[in-house]
Amino acid sequence: MPYRISRLGIVEIRSLDLDRDLDYYLNVLGLQLTAREGKTAYLKGWDERHAYSVALTEAERAGMVRLAFRTVDPEDLDYYERRLRQFSVKYDVISEDYRRGRALRFIVPSGHTVELYNEMDYTGNLLPTVNPAPWPEGLKGIAPPRLDHTLVTAPEPPKAIQFFQEVLEFRVSEMLVNPEGVPVAAWLWQRPAPHDIAIVPGRAGGFHHAAFVVDSADALFRAADILTMHKARIDYGPGRHGITRGATIYFFDPSGNRLETFGGYTSYQMDPDCRAIKWTMDQIGPAVFYYSQELNETFLSVYT
Ligand SMILES: [Fe+2]
């Protein structure tokens, strides 16, 4: 099965105070500002090639507005349109959005608004395309290279997991199963990484976190230093997930949305031969937080 989704392309996150939160996203998290248009700021990591990956929109409450996946090729968008019809999924065609072309927008069984698109302005990363240095000077804050994945909540995880598997052809890298073998949570992938999206139990439309890659465990500790210097609220870490093996810090933006720095190269890489790994509920502690071996109070109860 070819993979047709190149990446989690966009998350749109709600901000209770755009000026305050934009300062945090630029100077503590250290994303690059693409533009600010009305109540929305468009941001990206320094190594991302397209115009933006994060939209931060002022709103009355925190949480996620939508998430969007970029297809590998334009034809893949047509392929998915046929699949949405085949599975009788209602969708809207969004002719264009800020610096982006046609998108298919639909609601998935977890209650989230999901879009698929292919075209977005290709603006390049912060490095020249001829004789580039390994990283650009003058970065602020944690400065993650890119958006990696998101984790969302679903009232009935098996239905949401099945939708991503059947309709959008994601594969399960890991899952947490109840004693009957039914998945309670799943980590789903298309590009060769442990997950592009994960689903855990919770409210419909809930936003658990968006994760940004950092390139090493060293970079993860530097991120923890920066968060602490700025008195950011850290939820967990630095630590490691049993699931994905990724090194992690969970922390909150000033509106209370959870973010993650994920040590991308501390986790494993996927290939089509990989089969789903199962974790049993009695091992949920080390599955999520490998070193402390138990969930913290907030993991399943605090999200936006
Ligand atoms: Fe994560």
Description:
With 304 residues, this protein is an alpha/beta fold. It folds into 2 domains: 5-117, 2,3-Dihydroxybiphenyl 1,2-Dioxygenase, domain 1, CATH 3.10.180.10; 146-288, 2,3-Dihydroxybiphenyl 1,2-Dioxygenase, domain 1 (Roll), CATH 3.10.180. 17% of the residues lie in helices and 36% in strands. It is built from 5 helices and 17 strands. The chain has helices spanning 18-27, 74-86, 157-166, 217-229, 284-288, and strands at residues 5-15, 32-37, 40-44, 54-58, 63-71, 92-94, 103-107, 113-117, 146-154, 171-177, 183-189, 197-201, 207-214, 233-240, 247-252, 258-263, 277-280. The strands form 2 sheets. The chain has a 9-stranded mixed β-sheet with strand order 14-15-16-13-9-12-11-10-17. The chain has an 8-stranded mixed β-sheet with strand order 2-3-4-1-5-8-7-6. β15 and β16 form a beta hairpin. The chain is globular and about 50 Å long. The relative contact order is 0.16. The model has no long low-confidence stretch (mean pLDDT 96). The chain binds fe (ii) ion. Residues 149, 151, 209, 211, 260, 262 line the site of fe (ii) ion.
Instruction: List each distinct ligand once.
Output: fe (ii) ion
Strands of the widest sheet, in order across it, are: 14-15-16-13-9-12-11-10-17
- Write down the overall geometry: globular
Please give the CATH class of the largest domain: Alpha Beta
Order of helices and strands: EHEEEEHEEEEHEEEEHEEEEH
The total of helices stands at: 5
Number of strands: 17
Q: Total domains, how many?
A: 2
Quote the CATH topology of the largest domain.
Answer: 2,3-Dihydroxybiphenyl 1,2-Dioxygenase, domain 1
Q: Tell me the strand percentage band.
A: 35-45%
Give the overall average pLDDT.
96
Q: In the CATH hierarchy, what is the architecture of the largest domain at level 2?
A: Roll
Largest sheet: 9 strands, mixed
Give the low-pLDDT segments: none
Spatial extent as radius of gyration = 18 Å
| SSE-based structural type | alpha/beta
Task: Give the oligomeric state of the chains in this entry, treating copies of one chain as homo and distinct chains as hetero.
Answer: single chain
What's the helical proportion of residues? 10-25%
Question: How far apart lie the N and C ends?
Answer: 35 Å
CATH superfamily of the largest domain: 2,3-Dihydroxybiphenyl 1,2-Dioxygenase, domain 1
